[in-house]
């Protein structure tokens, strides 16, 4: 045991000379105990190193893997995961921790509020820019879903795509009234449909709700706020949101935000 | 909401909405922060969180899991490990030049669950070591250079430190090998 461990340590620490290393690797092909001892040391290193992970080949526990696989495939597990997802989409999150940079940008933009109007380029008006950019992001799809509550989502989506915004809003309203665990993506539709109908209060309310859901969809809020303010011709506030998007290239609509901001400058 | 640890398991396995809402409110923000600080996005955090919940339910239903610590801490650790695993998986795919092993999501989740059990076994045995052994091995396994450990912990020489590491590892190996669970979870 002790001899094994010393050799294994040297092998793993690259402290064996070529001849010793070759002999060790040769021994591994025939000595099962040595092989097991080596694997144990490797597993230990991976399990206790915070940057590594000890993966499993499952060579001696295929039965356990199969049983677990069957569970994860079962209707029960699929429904449970869907439930976790739905509840997660409806959870409010704590207000975002705005960085010092955010407040600096916000303050600077407020100071520049008047100036932005004075130097407003004449080529494209805010309304023209709004019309151009309100259509660039793809709306989420509910089509893959099948339960009865989700049928309303599909109908609402369809009406939206046919530009029947009032009808779309009525359907989504009915969905909100009959569903306990709301799919956060519905707020994106309500926001856009309301804005396109010039119902500013409803658009803002939907956007505010979306921003505070604990959902992937909430990442879109800054972009939607930029559009909302653009529609209201509140250019400084629109730019403020665009600046926030540009603080991280992973943010939703990063490239479009950069383009729109350049046009607003 | 004050819930006994095992009641969490039962309630989650039954899809109890209030319990799911509670764990989301209590733990998800921490998971999101961890994932975001480690090269991930909200969609990754969502995925990890849902998989960790399902992993815990599977362990409760199929493998008799019982939690002795706080449920919140247990779930957070499961989430952290699933994300560490994912990052290492991506690293492996890159180092094998994009050769991606085709494994179904369900099989991958099954393997992740067993790997989590193995990780817990190593952690449990590690905690049984002396404080000095834990300190030395933690630095050693996290690849702190020998010279730095010697300096920081006041060993007389590199050689003395190596002997100490060897003894601590031998003790840990012995503890792990003695546990019947290891023989079910090892690779070979």
Strand content of chain B: under 5%
Instruction: Compute the average pLDDT of chain A.
Output: 81
Q: Name the assembly state.
A: heterodimer
Biggest interface goes to: A-B, 59 and 60 residues
Which parts of chain A are unreliable, with pLDDT below 50 for 5 consecutive residues or more? 94-98, 117-122
- The strand count of chain B comes to 0
Q: How many separate helices of chain A?
A: 15
Number of strands of chain A: 0
Helix and strand succession of chain A?
HHHHHHHHHHHHHHH
Q: Which structural class fits the helix and strand makeup of chain A?
A: mainly alpha
Structure write-up:
The complex is a heterodimer of chains A (265) and B (188). Chain A is mostly helical. Chain A contains 15 helices and no strands. In chain A, helix 8 (126-133) runs antiparallel to helix 13. The model of chain A is unreliable at 94-98 and 117-122 (pLDDT under 50). The mean pLDDT of chain B is 90. The radius of gyration of chain B is 19 Å and the shape is globular. By secondary structure, chain B is an all-alpha fold. In chain B, helix 6 (131-141) packs across helix 8. The longest helix of chain B has 25 residues, at 71-95. Classes of the chains: A mainly alpha (265), B mainly alpha (188). At the A-B interface, helix 1, helix 3, helix 4 and helix 5 of A face helix 2, helix 3, helix 4, helix 5 and helix 6 of B.
């Amino acid at each position: 045991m002790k001899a094994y461990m010393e050799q294994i340590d040297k092998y793993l620490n690259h402290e064996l000379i070529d001849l010793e290393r070759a002999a060790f690797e040769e021994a591994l092909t025939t000595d099962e105990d040595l092989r097991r001892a080596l694997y144990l040391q490797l597993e230990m290193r991976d399990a206790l190193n915070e940057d590594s992970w000890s993966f499993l080949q499952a060579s001696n526990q295929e039965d356990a893997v199969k049983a677990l696989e069957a569970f994860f495939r079962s209707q029960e597990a699929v429904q449970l995961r869907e439930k976790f997802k739905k509840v997660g989409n409806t959870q409010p999150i704590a207000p975002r921790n705005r960085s010092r940079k955010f407040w600096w940008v916000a303050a600077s933009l407020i100071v520049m509020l008047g100036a932005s109007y004075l130097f407003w380029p004449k080529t494209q008006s805010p309304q023209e820019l709004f019309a151009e950019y309100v259509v660039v992001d793809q709306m989420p799809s509910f089509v893959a879903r099948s339960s009865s509550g989700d049928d309303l989502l599909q109908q609402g989506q369809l009406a939206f795509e046919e530009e029947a915004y009032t009808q779309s809003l009525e359907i989504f309203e009915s969905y909100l009234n009959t569903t306990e665990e709301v799919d956060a993506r519905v707020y994106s539709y309500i926001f856009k449909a309301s804005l396109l109908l010039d119902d500013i209060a409803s658009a803002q309310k939907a956007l505010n709700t979306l921003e505070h859901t604990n959902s992937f969809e909430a990442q879109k809020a800054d972009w939607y706020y930029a559009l909302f303010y653009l529609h209201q011709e509140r250019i400084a506030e629109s730019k403020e949101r665009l600046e926030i998007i540009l603080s991280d290239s992973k943010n939703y609509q990063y490239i479009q935000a950069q383009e729109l901001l350049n046009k607003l400058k | 909401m004050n819930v006994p640890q095992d009641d969490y398991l039962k309630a989650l396995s039954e899809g109890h909405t209030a319990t799911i809402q509670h764990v989301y409110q209590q733990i998800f923000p921490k998971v999101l922060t961890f994932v975001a600080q480690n090269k991930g996005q909200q969609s990754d955090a969502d995925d990890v969180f849902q998989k960790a919940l399902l992993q815990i339910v599977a362990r409760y239903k199929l493998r008799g899991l019982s939690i002795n610590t706080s449920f919140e801490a247990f779930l957070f650790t499961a989430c952290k490990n699933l994300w560490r695993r994912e990052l290492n998986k991506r690293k492996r795919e890159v180092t094998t030049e994009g050769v991606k092993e085709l494994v179904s999501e369900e099989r991958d989740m099954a393997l992740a669950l067993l790997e989590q059990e193995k990780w817990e076994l190593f952690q449990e045995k590690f905690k049984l070591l002396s404080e000095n052994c834990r300190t030395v091995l933690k630095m050693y396994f996290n690849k702190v250079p020998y010279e730095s450990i010697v300096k920081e912990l006041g060993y007389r020489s590199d050689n003395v430190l190596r002997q100490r590491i060897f003894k601590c590892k031998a003790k840990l190996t012995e503890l792990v090998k003695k546990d019947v669970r290891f023989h079910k979870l090892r690779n070979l």
